[in-house]
Write a structure and sequence with these properties.
Helix content is 27%, strand content 7%. The protein is mostly helical and 91 residues long. It has 2 domains: 30 residues, no CATH class; 37 residues. Strand 1 and strand 2 form a beta hairpin.
Length: 91
């Protein structure tokens, strides 16, 4: 998540000297075409260059599995980057 691809966060990241925050974002991949149905204004090309990892999940995994995976990924990212922020501050 950056201020460019998620404009609703305003300048929160810049104001806190954060370049980006990893976000678990869901989109459909159909015959190698990626489609983002998050909102009517969503366009996959807005996030395409920012993807760190792509993970195939089943529809029933969008809730609990996705959230748990995102939390674990975020905790590892905070640790690896030696962030000054705690998990609860970012989450």
């Amino acid at each position: 998540m950056t201020e460019l691809n998620t404009t609703k966060i305003g300048t929160e990241l810049t104001d806190n000297s954060i370049e980006f925050i990893p976000e678990a974002h869901c989109y459909l991949k159909i015959n190698e075409n990626r489609i983002d149905f998050t909102s009517k204004q969503s366009e996959f090309k807005k996030i395409e260059e920012d993807i760190i990892q792509e993970k195939l999940i089943e529809p029933n995994q969008v809730t609990n599995f996705k959230v748990d995976y995102h939390k674990k990924f975020l905790k590892n990212w905070l640790n690896e980057t030696k962030s000054k922020f705690e998990f609860d501050q970012i989450w």
